[in-house]
Amino acid sequence: MMKKYTKQENSWMLYDWANSAYSIIITTAVFPLFYKAAATNAGVSAANSTAYLGYTIAIATFILAMLGPILGTIADYQGLKKKFFIFFLVVGISATALLAFIPSEQWQLLLICYTVTAIGFYGSNVFYDAFIVDVTTEERMNRVSARGFGIGYIGSAIPFVISIAIIVMAQSEIIPLSTTKASQAAFLITAVWWGLFTIPMIKDVRQRYYIEREPNPVANSFKRLGQTFKDIRQYRALFLFLLAYFFYIDGVGTIITMSTAYGTDLGISSTSLLIILFMTQVVAFPFSILYGRLAEKFTGKKMLYVGIFVYIIVCIYAFFLKTTLDFWILAMLVATSQGGIQALSRSYFAKHVPKERSNEFFGFYNIFGKFASIMGPLLLGLTAQLTGSSANGVFSLIILFIVGIAILARVPEPKVDVAISNHTGRQL
């Protein structure tokens, strides 16, 4: 499956394999169910517990959104990109393992620790995404990015199946574990999987494009950041794309992170939700790769249109959900496009950033994505609380996709790549 790719491309893509365990087990499946059960046992209503989870995600993403461009600008200096990556990696893995030792009745503490895991996970992804310019060429970015997301779905499925098996056997009393302990075991499995398969990334991937070290790096980083804002017209197409991305990726991320909580509110059993989410991973694998190949034929922008349109259908269909079968159909619709839309957004952006300043620009990519992730959960949470219906909360997300696709339509197709180099930039 990976023979056509270089060692650096393979090692970079393998991080998607590694960290996707977090995406499915912590962000989407086991932790939300674990938290919902803990909150319910503490007397918190279904709508309020869903809203509190949304607010927690908003807090974590706000912190990252503020730090992203600043840390990214500093990390553009020679040798710093990987150091920042490893720092956030360690924070994320450590906090994920810690989740296994927090008593289930401490639902507030669970949310606090979850916030730290999210900071580590999404923080490491800022620098991981920026490394794409160092490991491959512009011509191969769509395919490499999409393949990374694709193998990530398969990679996440393995620890997910192991975790499901442990939880189901615990529920059936086949093994001498409570359901609580089985869920906590899943958190440990996630931490180990994430760390183990990140080793090739740490070992083989290096920063090829960078800015030379200089005195007062922090002060000069702020100056470069300020200069980027002054030269914003120079990057008009790029920032117009980021504005579109701000809206549509908000809807994508909110549906991914809140889907399990929404399914629980509909009365779907935990076992059914876990099986549905597993099948979502399986279906998403070939569709992510398909998006990458179709992007080479029809352009990445046109395939982004397709993905956004699918999500508009998802929002409409979610409003009418009543049965487990309805949730199955909804999940499969999401599976066809969630990997493709994220992968092509990453590669579309990466093709047009100045390579030696990739961290700075991916910091902006992060800030737009993360501020978007604040608005979506807040919109869903507030709508759910005000109307007393989680279905109304999901339906409200359609606004984000409509605005996103409208702005994306105004993004001009650049005739040449926006790769204007800073005079201090170098390629190693």
Distance between the termini: 29 Å
Biggest pleated sheet: 2 strands, antiparallel
Write down the domain tally: 1
The CATH superfamily label reads MFS general substrate transporter like domains
Low-confidence stretches: 414-428
Q: Strand order of the main beta sheet, please?
A: 1-2
Helix/strand-derived category reads mainly alpha
Radius of gyration: 21 Å
Q: What's the overall geometry? A: globular
In CATH, what is the class? Mainly Alpha
Provide the CATH architecture: Up-down Bundle
Membrane topology: Multi-pass membrane protein
Transmembrane segments: 12-35, 55-77, 84-102, 108-128, 149-170, 182-202, 237-262, 268-291, 303-321, 327-349, 361-382, 394-411
Protein name: MFS transporter
Subcellular location: Cell membrane
